[in-house]
Amino acid sequence: MTEIVISIFLLVGASLSLLGAIGIVRFPDVYGRLHAATKSATLGVISIISGVFLYFLWIDGIVVGKLLLTIIFVFLTAPVAAFMIGRSAYNTGVKMWGNTQQDDLADAMRKQKKENQQ
């Protein structure tokens, strides 16, 4: 039974990472690609590392603290890094895909420019 649970974690992680890779190739702009790379790959890596952690815990009886720290580190840093990359792309003028319906950041940037000019 434990091998089945571990295998499920590993397969889910591999599937999410594969979906992230497909999204990077298929999405039309940098923002969509960034979304695909961050969300699915982060969850995929966390699932794989969780499966490895469970393997060592259940099969070998070892608690590997480094794996837990890695899960926490990836969970905290990947979304922040993606946010900063997306914000940098927006601030440098990287255009959104033509069919993008909503640009929430445009209003905030206009307000910030007005405040800075005053």
Automatic annotation (TrEMBL):
It is found in: Membrane. It holds the Pfam family PhaG_MnhG_YufB. InterPro entries: PhaG_MnhG_YufB. It comes from the Bacteria. Belongs to the CPA3 antiporters (TC 2.A.63) subunit G family. One of its GO terms (molecular function) is sodium:proton antiporter activity. Signal peptide: none annotated. Its main location: membrane. GO terms for cellular component: membrane. This is Na(+) H(+) antiporter subunit G. Keywords: Antiport, Membrane, Transmembrane, Transmembrane helix, Transport. The chain crosses the membrane at residues 6-28, 40-58, 64-86. It is a multi-pass membrane protein.
